[in-house]
Amino acid sequence: MHAVVRIALSVTLATLFACGGSVGIGVGGGGVGVGASKDSYQQEIADWHNARIERLKSPTGWLSLVGLFPIEDGTYTFGSADDNDLVFAGKAPAHAGRITVAGKAVQLEAAGGVAMTHDDTPVTSMTLESDADGNPTEIKMGTYDFYVIDRPGSLYLRVKDSASEVRTSFKGIARYPVDKKWRIAARFDPYDPPRRLTVPNVMGFDEVVDCRGALVFSIDGREYRLEPMSEGNGEMFIVFGDATSGHETYGGGRMLYIPSPDENGDTFIDFNRAYNPPCVFTPYATCPLPHPENVLPVAIKAGEKNWEHTAH
Q1: Is residue 312 part of a domain?
Q2: Cα separation of 285 and 276, whole Å?
Q3: The sheet that has 65-71: what strands, in order across it?
Q4: How far lies 80's CA from each of 4, 23, 91, 164, in Å?
Q5: Each residue's pLDDT tens digit, 28-62
Q6: 199 in any annotated domain
Q7: Which of 69, 49, 62 is nearest to 177 (CA)?
Q8: What is the pLDDT of residues 242-268, one digit of tens each?
Q9: Residue 181 shares a structural domain with residue 48
Q10: What is the extent of the structural domain holding 114?
Q11: What is the distance between the alpha carbons of residues 219 and 299, in angstroms, rounded to a whole number?
Q12: Model-level pTM greater than 0.90?
């Protein structure tokens, strides 16, 4: 028998990158160009923010996260009853089933009378593939969805509940007024060779990522730099802190996608699209923190403010 686990840990950078939605625009199209009206820009940001909120509020969005449990070799019972090894919050079946772990192999067995499905097909016993290849075996049980995630050296069971009170009572996020002054031209300063960045995490562990350059830009005549943590699909991903962090905005920084630079190394940073990381909304997610080079000594009064019910 294992000790009862109620709160558990971990989310990797790759998972977090999708939580705010992508920029959806390139350097040469879709953004605010010369001659674009203020009203059209305001609408563009409003549309982006509304889409971001809809993703957050979706039945399996971050607001639905109700548990993240470490699972090592052994057998774990799960359900809402307190005598389970993994205690699900909410109105899950009291004794829903058990999970057996052997190395990276995870086997699910549903308890008698408990309905579970995978891809709309009823299951009573099934091997659960983790998200290591990006395609975990997702199990649905009433309002719950759960699956295995693989983080360096550890497996976890991630649990979501579309009936989560956090999700059903969510009223939105305060933002700074949209201001085009925060859509700032930037140039890409490449590193040769790429640098290895040690990215801290709210749970106290680090992740090392490759960074092939920095974004250089100016605010009120002063030059600043930000180092992306990842890039792909025509975008770069940044976690940054600034002088508002811990005051008007979340103390662990905010996240931002920007278009990858063009052939001349030019792009732009639109801080109006800065958004809160998942751990603002749930204690069951962990998030990367800005590494020291990405903490700006200037107040970025743009994008999302801290959520009034911040979880961390």
Answers
A1: no
A2: 13
A3: 65-71, 154-161, 144-151, 139-141, 116-118, 121-123
A4: 12, 39, 7, 14
A5: 333 344 345 678 999 999 999 999 999 999 999 99
A6: yes
A7: 49
A8: 999 999 999 999 999 999 999 999 999
A9: yes
A10: 62-161
A11: 10
A12: no
